[in-house]
Amino acid sequence: MMVRAHKLVKSFGNRPVLRGLDLELRQGDFVTLLGPNGAGKTTLLRILATLARPTSGTVELAGIPLNEAKSSIRGLLGVISHQTFLYEDLNAYENLRFYGKLYEVPNLTARVEEVLNKVGLEQRAIDRVRTYSRGMQQRLSIARAILHNPPILLLDEPDTGLDRQAADMLGGLIRELAIDGQSRTVLMTTHNLERGLAMSDRILILAGGRLAAERSSKSLAPEQLQDFYYDTVSLGGAR
Amino acid sequence: MPGYLRKVWAVYAKDVRAELRTKDIFSAMFVFSLLTTLVFAFALPAKLLDPKEVGGIAPGLLWVAYTFSGVLGLNRSFIVEKDKGSLEGLLLAPADRGAIYLGKMLSNLTFMLLVETLITPIFGVLFNYSTFNVWLIPVVLLGTLGFAEIGTIFAAMAINTRAREVLLPVLFFPIMLPVIIAAANATTAVLANRPFDEVLGQLEFMAVFDVIFLVLPILLFELAVEE
Amino acid sequence: MATFAKYNATRPAKTGLGFSTIIMWSLLVSWPVSLLFVLLAGDDAILKYSQRIFYYHLPSNIVCFIAFFIYFVGAIGYWRTRKRSWDIVMVAGLELGIFFSVIGVVTGSIWARYAWGTFWTWDPRLTTVSIMLVVYISGVMLRAAIDDPTRKAALTAVFGIIGFVNVPLVFFSTRWFPKGQHPLIFSETSNGSETTIGLDSFMYVTLAVCSVAVGLLFTYLLTERMRLGQMQDEVAARRLALEGGEN
Fold it and tell me: Where are the domains of chain B?
């Protein structure tokens, strides 16, 4: 079990966001998390990414409970958010080398080249990130996330701010890298129902701070998805 | 340990490299300290700036200029991190929070010292008050180190509040008062060519402050940035 | 009328001789008693009548320091456990510390005015308490600028630890302040230009009585403030449960 959350509760003061969530991801799972704004998708991801502490409940990454883990456990995670985490005044090389040092990536120079090639940015590597388009920045962000070869990828709405073509390209890239020799465990959130369904093995729908539905992607045809989603969400939200 | 120090250096080098590209922080700090100095020079009555009197007031003004521009630099160094979410990028890394703190503290220290080195002679010229004294170096060093230590952790805290950068001076000034007092006092003594043992007390004091507030923020930084 | 009866019926029965009731009554008794002592105490030789405010001034300063220490302890507790109950301790210490330091500074200032004609002296203790007051007020501003309670507690704790460790350093640095005319020394010997307070035995008793009065006030306020914090949490939790039920 790569990622496991049990009875996860997160409240911001008196406002509960996650109300007892259970989640299990096996190695190699590619799971898309859907849900309306405010359902707690980002909060869940932040907790899994160790950026936020749960109010109660347990989280395990690769079997290690987070509250006992040391900071090195973060080496298991690659995180992509709609914020890029990139330093705009540095170029791609410098950004990647910096993160590489923080993640103690071996053979850094070679690995940086390799990763830049994978995301197709080797031509622009010496340009400052400030000059990149949004799509390129997200690609570099992916490069940063896989630089240290993490077994778990957490993606929080990576297609935000991208036009359809760029988002499709990104989607393809993510799928490719998820496999990429080792099957990574991927949890992705998105607002795009169709793309989420197409990319993943399973979809989870989060509503009202709980897991409202879970379906294997094969069991749902794209036409059914919209209705299924809205049904689930309106039920779950009323709780 | 070496891994820890490597990460400290990585954060430090990244900050310096980024700053060398744009010189945003440095130029803002330098211009601001210059303006502060000018305001003092114009706003104070000429009598106070008379060569015989100025030694009493100038060191305090100098440290006020350092303090204000220091706060500006501290704020800017974290605003950069906040806007692109890169502070979170740092927190996601398997690096000890203390290492991140140290790296940022050292880069803040570097920028502050740089600005101070440039502004001090200019200050001396404007106030007709010699600031060339080698014993000024330990005073400025120890004092600025204290600024960087407290300033870095408070800036990281302030930037995540509603008031953001406005909160930093509010938190920073009261806590730094002991250092500002000791430093201004020591500066007065040094530039009046007083015997060294008068200054020793202040230097020891600042050293104690610096040691305590080097260790404490390293331990507390995790708590200061968590959610 | 009917609704009032229903309200009465659902209120919990008043508990009898609770701890806070004892404190409250002791408090109400001790203050007039202390005032009596203060009025009966003899005049100080040098400072004459104005010295009497010292009987409340000194305990206030001490209590303010204790309050900030409690804040510090709460901060360490929160740091180690991340439990909400420590946050309540911190806030109580912070608020009471500010309250009593204001009293300390104001009484000190009044005393200075009547003893030496100035509202302010750079006396080390007065200055330290004033700086502490400013530091901890900025702590209140820090709390006010944060909405998320978890982060609020965390940052309050960081600030509390740094702020309290800073206190001895503040005290030490006051020796470099502009020297005031009249540092106040609490001793029995006379010493040149420094003003000293020699106390006879009745004055010591008065001081003790006033300390008890101030101490009781502090204890009462502290326990009530902490109880208030717990009740606020309880109200919020119940409101939450209600909303959950409605949904």
Answer: 2-224
